[in-house]
From TrEMBL:
Pfam families: GTP-bdg_M (PF16360), GTP-bdg_N (PF13167), MMR_HSR1 (PF01926). It comes from the Bacteria. The keyword Magnesium applies. Monomer. Associates with the 50S ribosomal subunit. Keywords: Cytoplasm, GTP-binding, Magnesium, Metal-binding, Nucleotide-binding. This is GTPase HflX. It comes from Corallococcus interemptor. GO terms for cellular component: cytoplasm. GTPase that associates with the 50S ribosomal subunit and may have a role during protein synthesis or ribosome biogenesis. Residues 78-126, 205-225 are annotated as: Disordered.
């Protein structure tokens, strides 16, 4: 779907293995970052990894490793001290204040700033820095992008850019950019723009052209301040627009409240959209990339049941999802909150599936959706051998194993979903007065009609449905 660009930018990945992070978890983190970077359209041509007690405050990496990184990208490997460094620190301080109080913080001056150069010793303890591997790089032009697997402060980001001469992105920045590219609906685009502006605002700086800088820092800061104000206005505008859309959706959701709803939730790339397609016959996007889906789609399960069962496809999760993004997709996830059944879709062929499931559970717990009944679905078992499948069912006998690509498996899942709803249904009698026969369709929409008889008051229906739906129908026909 994405156009192939003539030349993909080359990127170096940077990761620090902190105490308590196992080799496997660290490697999996970097492998996932590589996929994210690839989804964004870059080629990851080298990975620089270092074991440290903590992230270096100035540049994440120790000075030796930083030089190694700069050698790959053609940078100096040091953070220039002096005017530029000071200005940057001043801005950093000012921005930190502005973050704490968005309405204030224009008057900070650079006079009392310390040098931007990282204090030697403390963060550069050679004894605690271990090179995990020699840096191998694929042959070709010098990489122009550095992607760090940690959240960078605006100051760290700038220091790294100065030292490497490359464009620097952190993990959150990569994810925000992917969301920005993949958002399709008006709503998703607004949500992503809010997250993006929130992410970018503290990272704003004057253009590196130098003209502003020559005019003195004061004018540079006010240019930034102007941009900031624009961002604040735009954010207010977006929030207003979003609130209007969401009101609309709340109404639509309210209209669906009596329907049987099941939501597909899980880590990105687990196969949610594939299952959505298979269960509903809808043409939602399926792609071997991260965050292919950003919009919630709701479709009736096919072949259609009476009453219909609605299936929703939702945005995928990832570890270290930027907080703003989670917040902005909260309304999308309301879909999951309102479902009567959650299908936790797991890519069983991914060795890190358990950690991925934990991430999913954590986010859903945060929005309060953990009280919704759920079933664990091991997808992609076509990639497992018999022994692995057996081990999986021994450890998780309650889970459903399937492949979204296997029609028989999907038919079995459909039956299980129907059985779930059947189990929570009750039988009741509804009397529809002759004067209200025109609305009899509502009964068929929300319940299964077992039998129908007529008497002097109207038609008498024996129905099966969810207790809530039956209560509402009874009330509505009595009024
Ligand atoms: N082998 C195999 N591949 C599968 C299966 N289900 C999905 N896939 C593949 O996995 C990739 C991701 O599938 P999607 O359905 O887009 O995953 P998703 O969970 O919707 O991902 P996001 O929308 O990015 O969160 C695609 O390349 C699918 O073809 C399966 O059962 N077996
Ligand atoms: Mg999807």
């Amino acid at each position: 779907m994405a156009k192939t660009l003539p030349e993909r930018p080359r990127a170096v990945l940077v990761g620090v293995q902190l105490p308590g992070v196992t080799d496997e978890a660290h490697a999996a983190d970097l492998a996932e970052l590589k996929r994210l970077v690839h989804t964004l359209g870059f080629d990851a041509v080298a990975t620089l990894s270092q074991r440290r007690q903590r992230l270096a405050t100035g540049t994440v990496l120790g000075s030796g490793k930083l030089k190694e990184l700069a050698a790959l990208t053609g940078g100096t490997g040091v953070i220039p001290s002096g005017a530029q460094g000071k200005a940057s620190k001043a801005r950093e301080k000012w921005e930190a204040e502005a973050d704490a109080n968005p309405e204030a913080g224009t008057e900070a001056s650079g006079d009392t700033d310390v040098d931007a150069e990282e204090p030697s010793g403390e963060d550069d303890d050679a004894a605690t820095d271990l090179d995990l591997e020699a840096t191998a790089i694929e042959p070709g032009p010098k990489p122009t992008v550095v992607v760090v697997d940690h959240e960078l402060s605006p100051g760290q980001l700038r220091n790294l850019e100065r030292a490497t001469g490359a464009q620097v992105l952190d993990r959150a920045g990569v994810i925000v950019d992917i969301f920005h590219r993949h958002a399709k609906s008006h709503e998703a685009r607004m949500q992503v723009e809010i997250a993006r502006l929130n992410y970018l605002a503290p990272r704003l700086r004057e253009s590196s052209g130098g003209s502003e800088r020559q005019q003195g820092r004061g004018s540079g800061d006010s240019a930034v301040e102007l941009d900031r104000r624009k961002i604040r206005d735009r954010l207010a505008e977006l929030r207003e627009g979003l609130a209007a859309i969401q009101k609309d959706q709340d109404q639509r959701r309210y209209a669906r409240r009596d329907q049987l709803r099941v939501a597909l939730v899980g880590y990105t790339n687990a196969g949610k959209s594939s299952l959505m397609r298979a269960l509903t016959g809808s043409a939602v996007l399926v792609a071997d990339q991260l965050f292919a889906t950003l919009d919630t789609t709701v479709r009736a399960m096919q072949p259609e049941t009476r009453p219909r069962i609605l299936v929703s496809d939702t945005v995928g999760f990832i570890q270290k999802l930027p907080h703003d993004l989670v917040a902005s997709f909260r309304s999308t996830l309301d879909e999951a909150l309102e479902a009567s059944l959650l299908l936790y879709v797991v890519d069983a062929s991914d060795p890190t599936w358990a950690a991925q499931l934990e991430v999913t559970r954590t986010v859903l717990r945060e929005i309060g959706a953990d009280v919704v009944p759920g079933r664990l679905i091991f997808n992609k078992v076509d990639r497992l051998d018999a022994a692995a499948r057996e081990a999986l069912s021994a450890a998780h006998p309650e889970a459903i194993q399937l492949s979204a690509h296997q029609p028989d498996d999907v038919a079995m899942l459909r039956k299980q979903v129907i059985a779930f709803f059947e189990a929570s249904m009750v039988e009741a009698d509804l009397v529809i007065p002759y004067a209200r026969q025109a609305r009899i369709g509502e009964v068929y929409e929300h319940t299964t009609v077992v039998s129908q008889a007529y008497d002097e008051t109207g038609s008498r229906l024996r129905v099966r449905g969810l207790p809530g739906a039956i209560a509402r129908l009874t009330r509505s026909f009595q009024e």
